[in-house]
Amino acid sequence: MNRVNEEKGTVIVLVAFLMLIFLVLLALVVDVGMLYLERIELVNTLDAVVLSGVQELPDDPLAAEDIAQEYAANNGLDSGQVTINVIASNQIEATGKENVAMNFAPAIGIEEVEITSTSKAQISQVNAVTGIVPFGIVQQNFVYGESYYLKYGAGDPANAQGLNGNFGALALDGTGAKNYEDNIKHGYDSQLKVGDEVTTEPGNMSGPTRKGVEYRVDQCNHVPGCSYDTVKPDCPRLLYVPVIDDLGNGRSTSEVVGFAAFFLEGMDKEQGNSYVEGRFIKWLADSAEMGSDGQNFGLRKVKLID
């Protein structure tokens, strides 16, 4: 009888010991899970920090660091928790750390754990774009906020290209007024790259141009309405335009040397309803690929890098 009691006592002690181990492991799993979630939050914050600052590169490295630092502070990381550096003319890096208090680990002497992470971002010009409009603007030094004709009309003596029968219209993936109009309304649905040759669509194309432009302008439903310095990324008045080397005579080909973004002002009524006017803007394009081919006309893309 005593032996049975002894065995029962041993089992009780063993079960209690195993229960203690189980509870300790469970507590550690909870703390490890919390650390994992905290690190994910830190990584996401640092990603956003570098993406906010990289947009100032390569023009203003100091502004890039300041903007990134400000974003970090607004999201709970003070200057003692994050280090931000421009590591190349077009790259920025942020390293952050955070001390996380443990809930159960103090029972085994671990009060808090430091987590760290590093994020990097890069900005570059683009060499391939999807969704462009069928206007070809000849390469030049564009000035932010200045107005440019994306397509000319007939009868302008200053328009040397127009005298050759070309007014800036392009035939993308087919010729004809309907194809041209659809590409104005919805953008060319295939990718165009630097070095590609595009075919011009000769003639004034007044009717299709007016219908396409009016459609774009009417589709902007933002309140207040967009302007070149407040345009939203999803606004149909934001245009991606291929920059070409020149316009030839009649139906001819031109080479794409880069891409630029314009805010669609509309039709120039003083010059007639076939003139399309846009204001040059610098923009970050999601529907684009980075590359060093061609010239930089202010249309760029940012991405996180390892």
Query: How is the biggest beta sheet arranged?
Result: 7 strands, mixed
Derived from helix and strand composition plus strand pairing, the structural class reads alpha+beta
Model regions low in confidence, pLDDT < 50 over at least 5 residues: none
Helix content: 25-40%
State the separation between the terminal residues, measured CA to CA.
69 Å
What is the C-alpha radius of gyration, as a whole number of Å? 30 Å
**Number of DSSP E strands:** 14
Q: Give the rounded overall mean pLDDT.
A: 88
Q: Which geometry do the CA atoms define?
A: elongated
Give the strand content: 25-35%
Assembly state of the chains shown: single chain
The sequence of SSEs as H and E is: HHEEEEEEHEEHEEEEEE
- Count of runs of 4 or more consecutive helical residues: 4
Keywords:
single chain; 306 residues; alpha+beta; seven-stranded mixed sheet; 14 strands; 30% helix; elongated
Q: Your description of this structure?
A:
- The protein has about 300 residues and is an alpha+beta fold.
- It contains four helices and 14 strands.
- The protein has helices at about 1-55, 60-75, 175-185, 205-220; strands spanning about 80-90, 90-100, 110-130, 135-140, 145-150, 170, 190-195, 195-200, 240-245, 255-265, 275-280, 285, 290, 300-305.
- The strands form two sheets. Strands 1, 2, 3, 7, 12, 13 and 14 form a seven-stranded mixed beta sheet that branches. Strands 4, 5, 6, 8, 9, 10 and 11 form a seven-stranded mixed beta sheet that branches.
- It is elongated.
